[in-house]
Automatic annotation (TrEMBL), chain A:
Belongs to the CPA3 antiporters (TC 2.A.63) subunit G family. Residues 121-165 are annotated as: Disordered. InterPro entries: PhaG_MnhG_YufB (IPR005133). Pfam families: PhaG_MnhG_YufB. Keywords: Membrane, Transmembrane, Transmembrane helix. This is Na+/H+ antiporter subunit G.
UniProtKB/TrEMBL annotation, chain B:
It is a multi-pass membrane protein. It comes from the Bacteria. It comes from Zafaria cholistanensis. Its main location: membrane. It is found in: Cell membrane. This is Cation:proton antiporter. One of its GO terms (molecular function) is sodium:proton antiporter activity. The chain crosses the membrane at residues 34-54, 61-82.
Automatic annotation (TrEMBL), chain C:
It is a multi-pass membrane protein. GO terms for cellular component: plasma membrane. The lineage of its organism: Bacteria, Bacillati, Actinomycetota, Actinomycetes, Micrococcales. The keyword 4Fe-4S does not apply. Signal peptide: none annotated. The chain crosses the membrane at residues 21-38, 44-62, 74-101, 121-139. It comes from Zafaria cholistanensis. Keywords: Cell membrane, Membrane, Transmembrane, Transmembrane helix. This is Na+/H+ antiporter subunit E. GO terms for molecular function: monoatomic cation transmembrane transporter activity. Residues 191-218 are annotated as: Disordered.
Length: 165, 88, 218
């Protein structure tokens, strides 16, 4: 009985390992094949999280150890918390330095916000935090202006919007 | 069976690492390179995990936990640097 | 960063040590647990030592305190976590399939979605979850208006853009049910009942044109 359970666990661990590695491969393929920085970001973030989860559970299963679970969970949670932040930072830097291909975008609602911010010059701390002493586009757009603009952007999400959903 | 799994994983991870390295070499901007290096770091972590599972030890467990944080700090630093330098 | 609708910001140490300690308690417990996990030793002595260490760390490296809303629905959190895991799996395979099948021809969009809440923690949580579930990740955050600008992969029609918006707001509603304040809960409930809800911290002069999304239509 324990022998068959052992075999099952081993098989599960094996499948987890292979699929986890497959996710790394997915990230690699995505990095190479997607057209611009922002879409490559998807490939770099999402499969990694699942891949690490599968690999860590394979380690826990293979070592048959419950004492290991907290530290493995911690490693995964750390990645869960850091991966979106680093993706956001890279994406933001990429967007602001124009590392994107316009023709791959169907809609770009941020474009006008940033354009207006440049026009109005340095403003309040409108967009996400930004170090002091910079000028130009690095600065967040003036708060009031964004309020006006984003109101237009998210028209579909206004008071009437979500009721439809 | 575990040796077969180890071989399959090795092949998959090597292919993934090769693709990531191609992106590091080709990447038009430093952001793409740092992203690809992040992926590469995660592939190394994956290799460590496979090693731990197949050989049944926990030696590199702390590195796995630390690598996430190290990759995070590196990526954030570079992207901050890119955003800041463009303005000066 | 005092904004209407939220409690007054707790400065570092202005309200007296007692209140600060109460707000920081979840963080301290979390850090003690991390300490225990790293040592793989959850004995009482080790946890207490970790807690003391966390106390030192929190007091030496001061950061603005994260204010939790004070309510947490465990059942909904479990449901949310299971759904979230399922979506992470889906997201990974979706990206894989897209990378292999569509590759360089994939089209995407940058969509702005204005959230209901102005709470920093909630906006962060929604942004994090959005980055990990299929299709979207956060490019830019407009903190003043709690608007997230998402990059959405594989968007081909404007109808899909609208669907993304509804999806994001639905996600926010579910997160509010897990850990939002009572105020936000009431707003979500009212909305579900089909009532118009008061827009979050409106400046009064916000035009709601609805033209922006159409303007860039090819």
């Amino acid at each position: 009985m324990t022998g068959s359970l052992d075999a099952v666990l081993q098989a599960v661990a094996g499948v987890c390992l292979v699929v986890g590695c497959l996710m790394s491969l997915a990230a690699g393929i995505g990095m190479l094949r997607f057209p611009d920085l922002l879409s490559r970001m998807h490939a770099a973030t999402k499969p990694q999280v699942l891949g690490l989860f599968l690999l860590l559970s394979a380690v826990a299963i293979e070592l048959r150890s419950w004492a290991l679970v907290p530290v493995l969970l911690l490693a995964w949670l750390l990645q869960l918390l850091t991966a979106p932040v680093s993706a956001h930072m890279v994406g933001r830097a990429g967007y602001r330095t124009k590392h994107l291909k316009r023709q791959t975008l169907l809609v770009d609602e941020l474009d006008q916000v940033v354009a207006r911010a440049v026009q109005d010059g340095p403003g309040r701390d409108g967009l996400a935090q930004e170090g002091p002493g910079q000028d130009g586009m690095g600065q967040g757009p003036a708060g009031q202006d964004v309020a006006g603009r984003t109101g237009g952007c998210s028209a579909g999400t206004g008071p009437a919007g979500p009721a439809a959903g | 069976m575990m040796t077969a799994v180890a071989w399959i994983c090795g092949v998959l991870l090597s292919a993934a690492a090769a693709l990531a390295i191609v992106r590091v070499a080709r990447g038009p901007s430093i952001l793409e390179r740092v992203l690809a290096l992040d992926v590469l770091l995660m592939i190394v972590v994956a290799a460590l995990c496979v090693d731990m599972a197949v050989n049944r030890h926990t030696d590199s467990l702390v590195f796995v936990a630390a690598a996430c944080v190290i990759g995070f700090i590196g990526t954030v630093t570079v992207s901050r640097y890119v955003t800041d330098r463009r303005n000066s | 960063m005092i904004r209407p609708g939220s409690r007054p910001a707790t400065g570092t140490g202005e309200q007296g040590p007692r209140l600060t300690f109460r707000i920081e308690l979840p963080l301290l417990v979390w850090m003690a647990l991390v300490w225990g996990a790293l040592w793989q030793d959850f004995s009482a002595g080790n946890l207490v030592f970790g807690f003391l260490l966390a106390l030192v760390v929190v007091n030496v490296f001061r950061l603005p305190p994260v204010e939790l809303s004070g309510r947490f629905n465990v059942w909904r959190a479990v449901v949310f976590a299971v759904g979230f895991l399922g979506k992470v799996v889906l997201a990974s395979f979706q990206v894989f399939a897209l990378a292999v099948v569509r590759g360089p021809r994939v089209r995407s969009a940058v969509v702005g979605v204005r959230l209901r809440t102005g709470d920093d923690l909630m906006v962060t949580a929604v942004g994090h979850v959005l980055t990990l579930i299929p299709g979207s990740f956060v490019v830019e955050v407009d903190r003043g208006n709690s608007t997230l600008y998402l990059h959405v992969l594989d968007v081909n029609t404007h109808a899909q853009v609208e669907r993304v918006r509804r999806h994001v707001l639905d996600l926010e509603a579910r997160l509010v049910r897990v850990m939002g304040t009572r105020e936000e809960m009431a707003r979500v409930d009212a909305e579900r009942a089909g009532l118009a809800f008061p827009p979050p911290q409106d400046n009064g002069s916000t035009p709601r044109g609805g033209d922006t999304a159409r303007k860039e239509a090819p």
